[in-house]
Amino acid sequence: MPKPKEIQLRAAMALSGWVALAATLLPGGSPLRWIPVLLFVCFGPGLALLHPQPGGLRPAARLEGFALAAPISLALGVLTATSLFLVEGFSATAFLLPLAAFATIVSALPGLPLPAATRGAVERHKPRAGGL
To answer: Would you list the DSSP string of 5-55?
Structure first.
């Protein structure tokens, strides 16, 4: 059973794309329009794909998750935008809609395993008995 904090995190990631999509209804030059869109496109799909991890993450693995979220999100954004340009159907709504749907769907699934979290790279070394 997921913890309440995990459920809130998943809900926030699922809603982030829809908030960005709703922000496109605001006037063109408004920071209230472009800030949520920029943050979602840069981090939303990647964070939804990678977080939350079962059992939580240690600090270094958490850093790895945030560091991987941006390139994954941007790669998904580039694939989406390129596909839309190829079919001559690009618009802000057409771009954000599949990304928001993707973030909503994957936020309901467990996060992808992270290498630092799975190989124990962030555990503290215990001193050996009787030696260095």
So the answer is: HHHHHHHHHHHHHHHHHHHTTS-TT-HHHHHHHHHHHHHHHHHHHH-SPTT
Q: Quick one: which H or E segment has residue 95?
A: helix 92-107
pLDDT tens, per residue, the chain with 132 residues: 667 888 888 899 999 999 999 999 988 788 888 999 999 999 999 999 888 776 666 777 778 888 889 999 999 999 999 999 999 999 999 999 999 999 999 998 887 777 655 555 544 545 556 555
Whether the full predicted model's pTM is greater than 0.90, yes or no, is: no
Report whether 113 contacts 68 (CB < 8 A).
no
> Could you count the other beta carbons within 10 Å of the beta carbon of residue 68?
18
Query: Can you tell me the distance from the alpha carbon of 57 to that of 29, in angstroms, rounded to the nearest whole number?
Result: 38
Q: Are 117 and 62 in contact (CB under 8 A)?
A: no
Nearest to 99, CA basis, from 13, 15, 17: 17
Query: Which residues does 26 contact at the CB level (< 8 Å), separation at least 6?
Result: 32, 33
